[in-house]
Design brief:
Elements: E1 2-7, H1 9-12, H2 21-40, E2 43-48, H3 51-64, H4 73-98, E3 105-107, E4 111-113, E5 126-132, H5 134-142, E6 147-149, E7 155-159, E8 166-167, H6 170-178, E9 182-184, E10 191-196, E11 199-202, H7 209-220, E12 224-229, E13 234-236, E14 244-246, E15 248-250, H8 251-259, H9 269-280, E16 285-290, H10 294-298, E17 304-307
Parallel strand pairs: 1-2, 1-12, 2-9, 3-9, 4-10, 12-16, 15-17
Antiparallel strand pairs: 4-8, 5-7, 6-7, 10-11, 13-14, 16-17
Helix pairs in contact: 2-4, 3-4, 7-9, 8-9
Length: 308
């Protein structure tokens, strides 16, 4: 079976945690523990979100900008892919060796083709960076940042999030999987690129990693998309007194819940949209749950299952 495991940025850095090497490494080690049994017996691609990391890199870029040249957002995206990908690969190698699993791993800096005229560039919605309180958010608004309220969790900066059209390295990913190599790819949704006069160049944007995972799944013919996030289920009326976990739904039910506005733009909405895309283009099932229930959910014992 071919599985895409999509790690949410909040799996790697939880809300309120310090963005430091030691915290990131600790969370990655825990993540590897939960993934081991899935990876052991399946062809696996691991994708990951970079919301906290790209946000902090952008802030560091700004602070250092008075003394050093600034880098564009697509380059910062590449930095975050290498930063997180390296640590994931390192710790997975350690866990696999300790458990006598002989599988090589490859990390790819991944580019994703988007439309430069995508309307997302006129209406930025993708959250990056840490959560802010109301007063901090007001200060950032005055500086010209776009800020949204993110699913009852606080305020976050947002940037353009165009739709992924093609993972440029999808053929390489498939070739590596065919050789039974674990692939770490599409970090942060991939680096958004487009063509101008036949020349490829990067764009200032961040692509949703779940939508990119679904896009990749179509090409590599993945069977399962496992989306790991901060909550154990998809919920209706999330954060309200009448909140209700959804344990199973089909595409039509998922579309109905989206239409009713149950899912937040910066949280569950893109995950459910990605699930629908994945299933419409050949995928067999999508599971959404939290990292600690990842293996149980993969075996059908927890989480939200979405099917055709």
């Amino acid at each position: 079976m071919t599985v895409i495991i999509a790690l949410g940025g909040n799996v790697l850095i939880k809300r309120g945690e310090t963005q430091s090497y030691s915290v990131l490494l600790r969370n990655i080690k825990r993540t590897c523990e939960h993934l081991l049994l899935i990876i052991k017996n399946n062809k696996t691609v691991i994708t990951f979100g970079n919301g906290p990391e790209i946000g902090y890199l952008a802030l560091q870029n700004e602070i250092a900008g008075t003394k050093f040249p600034k880098m564009p957002l697509d380059v910062l995206g590449a930095e975050s892919q290498a930063l997180i990908g390296y640590l994931l690969e390192e710790q997975l190698i350690n866990f696999l060796r300790r458990n006598m699993v002989n599988k090589p791993i490859a990390t790819l800096v991944t580019q994703v083709l988007v439309d430069k005229n995508d309307r997302a560039f006129r209406n930025p919605t993708k959250p990056i960076g840490p959560f802010y309180g109301k007063s901090e958010a007001k200060k950032l608004l005055k500086k010209g940042y776009r800020i949204i309220h993110d699913a009852n969790r606080g305020y976050r900066r947002v940037v353009a999030s165009p739709k992924p059209l093609l993972v440029m390295e999808a053929g390489i990913v498939k070739n590596l999987l065919d050789q039974n190599i674990i692939v770490i790819a599409c970090g942060g949704g991939g680096i958004p690129v487009t063509y101008r006069g036949g020349t490829l160049y990067g764009l200032e944007a961040v692509i949703d990693k779940d939508l990119t995972s679904a896009c990749l799944g179509r090409y590599i013919r993945a069977d399962t998309l496992l989306i790991l996030t901060s909550v154990p289920f998809v919920y209706l009326n999330y954060g309200k007194k009448n909140q209700r976990a959804v344990k199973k739904m089909n595409i039509y039910e998922a579309q109905g819940y989206l239409h009713e506005g149950h899912f937040g733009v910066g949280s569950m909405k893109p995950k459910v949209e990605a699930a629908i895309e994945f299933l419409l283009h050949g995928g067999k099932k999508v599971i959404i749950t939290s990292i600690q229930y990842g293996y149980k959910a993969f075996r059908g014992q927890h989480g939200t299952l979405i099917v055709k």
